[in-house]
Write a structure and sequence with these properties.
about 80% helix, mainly alpha, about 250 residues
Length: about 250
């Protein structure tokens, strides 16, 4: 009986913890969402950069994961272990590291200047994409590698004995795994990038590269427009929940 009471109390507390902020947002927004052109631009930029980041991270992760699966070399376990580094690095530290490498006076641009090429611009749309790939590519690689490791070794030996072409091997071995795992990876990374704040704040480069998170921050702290901040927060909740619900129907 006591255990059941604790379970009920814990459940009520968790539900209240989840619904409390949502109810507050609805209260402050007045159940109305009036978006101006800058709000719509922020929503569009948020979705577009998230789609680019998720797509590029997933595509680049495929050959890397395949290489880590099939190649044996000294330090392989360390390489797999170090893929978790972006998850423990503070976001601002990682972003500053990217600026030191790709910034106006970074290593890459200094080399490009020496050989007469145009410099790389890290600020703006592609700067945000680059930072998101840096953070999310290791996640995609590790998930893909774990999925590829579930394929029995007998399958690889059987396919090798059949002397199939590269394309035939890909569709026989890798495609079933990729078709099952990649949509979920894409959805997870897309949802992560929807809530981007520090990356967009540091590398956005102006109003044209403003995410919904930044728009909420500006409405709350600079404009003191709590109603607008609540409305934008509801929009973000809708976007994230939509991605989560859609991911449940994938495979």
């Amino acid at each position: 009986m006591a255990r059941s009471t604790v379970t009920v109390i814990s459940s009520v507390f968790l539900v209240g913890l989840l619904l409390g902020p949502l109810i507050s947002l609805i209260h402050f927004s007045g159940l109305s969402v009036s978006l101006n052109s800058s709000d719509i631009a922020a929503i569009k930029f948020t979705c577009v950069q998230a789609a680019y980041s998720a797509t590029l991270s997933t595509l680049i992760a495929i050959p890397v994961a395949k290489a880590l699966k099939r190649q044996k070399f000294f330090g392989k376990q360390f390489v797999v272990l170090i893929l978790g580094a972006p998850f423990i690095l503070p976001v601002i530290v990682a972003v500053l590291g990217l600026i030191l490498v790709f910034g106006n006076n970074g290593v890459v641009n200094n080399i490009l200047n020496l050989i007469g090429f145009a410099p790389v611009k890290i600020y703006g749309f592609w700067g945000v994409i680059l930072a998101h790939i840096f953070f999310n590519l290791p996640l995609a690689i590790r998930i893909l590698l774990q999925a590829l490791n579930t394929v029995p070794g007998e399958h690889y030996r059987l396919i090798s004995s059949l002397k199939l072409s590269f394309v035939q091997k890909f569709f026989a071995l890798d495609w079933p795994v990729l078709k099952k795992v990649c949509p979920g990876i894409w959805a997870v990374i897309f949802a992560i990038c929807l809530s981007s704040f520090s990356v967009a704040l540091t590398l956005g480069g102006g109003p044209k590269a403003t995410t919904v998170e930044l728009a909420i921050y500006q409405s709350f702290f600079y404009d003191l427009d709590f109603s607008k901040a609540a409305q934008l927060a509801l929009v973000q909740v809708f976007l994230v929940v939509s991605v989560v619900l859609c991911s449940q129907f994938i495979n």
